[in-house]
Write a structure and sequence with these properties.
about 375 residues, 6-stranded antiparallel sheet, 11 helices, 5-stranded antiparallel sheet, 11 strands
């Protein structure tokens, strides 16, 4: 967020808070006026506590204390008007209201401190996400790309799912993966995989050999860090994709990862038949198969992790990804990510049980690319 945007957001929040403060003030005025006009045997003064009790929901400790002081002043005026300020009844009401106001202010202080801590955690998580998973470019050669990451943890923006892209000579290489587990161990293994991929992807080695190198990295990581209780539990699934700029094909090597979906114009969705090897870190020396499929201009390749497929609704039903994306096969990658984010969260009731990552890769039709060059030439 830019400094200007941050200032605008802070100003909007300040204006919203001050507008809402009118509500408890009006409430105090209405209760006070009503109490002064009602018969002597009807007492509304105790209801003044509602005003400071509501204030922490939208304002901080200072505003809460100010509303509390205003409520105490109103209770005092009611007592003076009724001529019974020295009576036990009004003294008890004032003391009780004062205690409740103090407790409300303390609650507001704790709530604000908690919100500050959450904001700091989210800031660190966002920084970690940008360090580990660099934002994917919106366009590389003939490809338009959009990505989406949804972390299952409330206070995090990154977990065990990962993706990355590398531009090689005449092709684009993509990695999407899912590290078993959550928390810091999963993030550490995700960082290892991303670093190993970025180091090896530029060397133009075949995908099956690249998968072998990633497998070796995970195996070494597990041997160095896993405890006896975790033996055999540290592994990761991964899908490696190589998309040439000129040839209308895509090459894939799957290491226990779900196959992608190929979205074609006309609401056609197909699932490439891969020959997956075991997940990374499970079986040292496993052979990895290179699969080649057609990827024509106008098609979109959708990569995802199992957190998408395993999202359940209130009845325990899995998210029907292939059926849902059939409605959006002709949308841009950005629009597709927008639809999937909204639809997936709605299906899962607003919260996922596991991290979820998606990448949409669209091969731009040739005529559109030529048209784009013509436009650029006309504006040059």
């Amino acid at each position: 967020m830019t400094p200007g945007a941050a200032r605008i957001r802070l100003r909007q929040r300040w204006q919203s808070t001050h507008a809402l403060l009118v509500l408890p003030v009006l409430l105090i005025v209405m209760i006070t006026v009503a109490d002064l006009w009602l018969p002597w045997d009807i007492h509304l003064g105790p209801a003044l506590v509602i005003a400071p009790a509501l204030t922490p929901s939208f304002a901080g400790p200072r505003a809460t204390a100010g509303i509390g002081a205003l409520a105490l002043t109103a209770q005092f005026l009611i007592g003076v008007h009724r001529g019974g300020l020295a009576t036990t009844n009004h003294i008890v009401q004032l003391i009780t209201l004062a205690i409740l106001v103090v407790l409300t202010v303390v609650y507001s202080v704790l709530r604000e401190r908690r919100q500050t801590q959450l904001a700091q955690v989210r800031t660190v998580a966002e920084a970690a996400q940008h360090v580990l998973m660099w934002p994917l470019p919106e366009q590389i050669g003939p490809l338009r790309i959009a990505s989406l990451y949804l972390a299952a943890e409330d206070e995090a923006q990154i977990g065990g799912d990962l993706y990355a892209a590398a531009v090689c000579d005449g092709s684009v290489r993509l990695l999407i993966g899912d590290v078993r587990g959550k928390g810091l161990p999963a993030i550490g293994e995700a960082a290892l995989l991303l670093g190993s991929f970025r180091e090896s992807a530029y060397r133009r080695i075949p995908l099956d050999e690249l998968a072998t190198r990633l497998d070796q990295s995970v195996t070494r990581y597990a041997a160095d860090l896993e405890t006896p209780e975790e033996e055999g539990e540290r592994f990761a699934t991964a899908l490696l994709v190589d998309i040439p700029d000129r040839d209308p094909v895509t090459r894939m090597t799957s290491c226990g990862h779900p196959p992608p979906l190929l979205l074609s114009p006309g609401h056609v969705v197909t699932v490439p038949s891969l020959h997956p090897s075991p997940p990374l870190g499970v079986h040292a020396g496993a052979e990895h198969t290179l699969d080649v499929f057609s990827f024509e201009p106008g098609d979109t390749l959708l990569l995802y992790t199992d957190g998408v497929m395993e999202a359940r609704d209130e009845h325990g039903r899995f998210y029907p990804l292939a059926d849902r994306v059939a409605r959006w096969t002709e949308d841009s990658p950005e629009a597709l990510m927008h639809h999937l984010r909204r639809d997936l969260l709605a299906h899962a009731g607003g919260r996922l049980g596991d991290d979820a990552a998606l990448i949409a890769v669209h091969r731009i039709p040739v005529e559109r690319r030529h048209h784009g060059r013509g436009e650029m030439a006309r504006h040059a």
